[in-house]
Amino acid sequence: MWRYFVGFLIGMLMFSTQAMALRFARPPTFTEWNSNTFSQLNDTLLQIWNTLNGRVSMDVVTVDPDGSRPCSVGEFVLFDTGTDQLCVCVTEATKVWKCVNLT
């Protein structure tokens, strides 16, 4: 029985590292319970479920997002030119995106 338990723990550790690579936004703070709170809670739980089950898709843009595309901090987009770039939003107020080439 002890071997099964240790094997189960090792298996959980091996597969949980892949799930930790995908991150979702911080859930909102709920201060009162009304219909709006339940819709926010449903959206947050759906986002968590989609992330854990691999159903996250990345937006593909053909225009440079820096300064023109509104964003939330930590959002990713794929900037598709001749050389593909992965862009991450670093500042929400001024719409600043940092991009790196994908090789």
Description:
There is one protein chain. The chain is α+β, with helices and mostly antiparallel strands and 103 residues long. It folds into two domains: 1-57, no CATH class; 58-103. It has two helices and four strands, in the order H-H-E-E-E-E. The chain has helices at 2-20, 35-52, and strands spanning 59-61, 76-79, 85-91, 96-101. The protein has a four-stranded mixed sheet, with no helix packed on it. A hairpin with a 5-residue loop joins strand 2 (76-79) and strand 3 (85-91). The relative contact order is 0.11. The model has no long low-confidence stretch (mean pLDDT 79).
Secondary-structure topology with pairs:
Blueprint: H1 2-20, H2 35-52, E1 59-61, E2 76-79, E3 85-91, E4 96-101
Parallel strand pairs: 1-2
Antiparallel strand pairs: 2-3, 3-4
Offer a few descriptive terms.
103 residues; four-stranded mixed beta sheet; alpha+beta; flat; 2 domains
